[in-house]
Amino acid sequence: MDNSHLAGNDDYIEGEERFSQIPCSTLEPMDGTCHIILAQGEGALAVLDLAKKTSSDFWQKTHLAYVPDNIEPNRTSQLQDLNPRWFYEWPTLDAALPHVREIFANSKQGSRLYVTGTHSFIGIIFQQAHNAGIDPYEALAERRGPKTRRIQCVHCKGFMDNVATQPVTCSHCGVLLLVRGHYSRRLAAYQGVCINAEDTSEIPETKELFS
Amino acid sequence: MYAVNLEPHTPVKKGSVFEFPFDVDEHYVSEMKDRALVLDEDPLRCQSLPHMEAAGWDTLELIMESKAAAYPEHFSLSKDGDKWRWINRPMGIDDTFIFGNTSTLPYGPMEYITRQAQGDFAVLDQRDGNLWMDAGIVTTQADWSLDFDIGMNFFEWHAPVPLAHELGIFKRALKFLLNVQHGKPARRLNWTMTINPRLDTSPENYHKWGKDRLTVTPENVGEKVYLRVELQTFWRLPRSNGLLFPIRCYLISMEELSSIPKWGCRLHRVLGSLPQELRDYKGLTSYIDDTVAWLSKFDQGQETSPGTFPD
Question: If one looks up domain A34-143 in CATH, what number appears?
């Protein structure tokens, strides 16, 4: 693809990405027999906001999982004060995943899913939910924290997390990548494609588009 | 500028690519060798999600029956209940298998038959009022990745296409495709341009072929620049209710194309009036001006005859 028109457009994202990503909105209480809430980093604040709109019996049928991800301040005690039926805390997404899979595997029809945190976090949790057969129409997502992206290099197929810039150098194969507005829920990643394949000596300016 | 340009896939003219349901031409054996090479290097060019097995058998049946009927000198299919014998003479294949039993074939049914059929194939599942790219074999593509797009719905995999969403093109196209009936296939044409007669213009290898675009000069346009036309057809599959979506690629150099004066004239007008967004999306920006200039000698403002066939 040609990207010569990139120069001079500060907010350039290729494609119609609204057709190709997880719809994010604001967490609202849904009717359900069980609630599964997964919050990463600043997502804790979205959960506290959600709590302002819930009745007390909401939390009696809720799994609340918190992944602080070393993001300060830690909100553990504030979340525990909501008195969820089950509370879990895992330091990072990697540590959380086996437990999240277990929760999803045991979830019954009528369960509702709430996910909040960075877009990368939301994407990976939705990927797991999809693999567990959870209907996306029974789920809500709210992005909190930086707008960084998880991308897959289309050339070497390597993944990179927390990408803030356009373009970005692939940390695996070294190709300079355009982050396209093309998102795969299955891979939980945006697509990265060589930005200067026609002439590799042409290096477009790097901009912080996703921060 | 954009049109959904769908029409029934019915025979049009003897000797044309529309004569038979699946066109087999003089490049058949070499294109199948090219496909095998690409798959050796990158097996993820062929994928099928687990629920697509029935659609794979539908695909195998459709292609075998169509080819055996259209080209009996090259292909034969005989059936003894579920026991089928398939002979593909150009490729030297003579296999007997049990229809519906994947363990009796060297590959899954979709991969088996599409390793013997020119063009890319996407196999779409139909559910929730949408089409889902849930299986396919893609080795001759114009810059899209099956490995990335597999599992996406119709709007998701078209997300990178500019302008057409706003025009409502995809909503209308989807509505049409959801209603394609068994035995009544449809077709449309799509086009872009490619430098050199390269079939595998994949995003995976873009960092390798992208530089070819800067090799075009005003002198070599005729031999370097190719028009790439995709004949896309749409087939309802009887058991799975899936939709088979073959994308057959034809390449022609500017030199050969302009040997038909009507085509040289027409392409000059199309390229000259192409909106900037489409020049960029189709990747033509770096060489389109040279190509338009080269084609200008075929366009004296004359009227051309209706249709796409030569006069």
Answer: 3.40.50.80
What ipTM describes this predicted complex?
A: 0.88
Mutate to test the interface with A, among B148, B277, B288 (most CBs of A within 10 A): B148
Contacting residues of A for B161, CB less than 8 Å apart:
15-16
Give residue-wise pLDDT tens across range B196-238.
999 999 999 999 999 999 999 999 999 999 999 999 999 999 9
CA distance A55 to chain B (A): 33
The predicted structure's pLDDT at residue A134: 83
Residue ranges per domain, chain B? 7-298
Annotated catalytic, B188?
A: yes
B204 contact residues in A (CB cutoff 8 A) = 154-155
Query: Where in chain B does DSSP place strands (E)?
Result: 7-8, 46-48, 75-80, 83-88, 93-98, 120-127, 130-137, 186-195, 225-236, 243-253
Residue B162 pLDDT > 90: no
What's the confidence (pLDDT) of residue A192? 96
CA–CA separation, B101 vs A175, rounded Å? 43
Pairing of strands B83-88, B75-80: antiparallel
- Residue B259's identity, in one-letter code, is S
Helix (H, G, I), strand (E, B) or coil at A48: helix
For residue B1, the model assigns a pLDDT of: 55
Residue B138: the pLDDT is 98
Domain boundaries, chain A: 4-20+147-208, 34-143
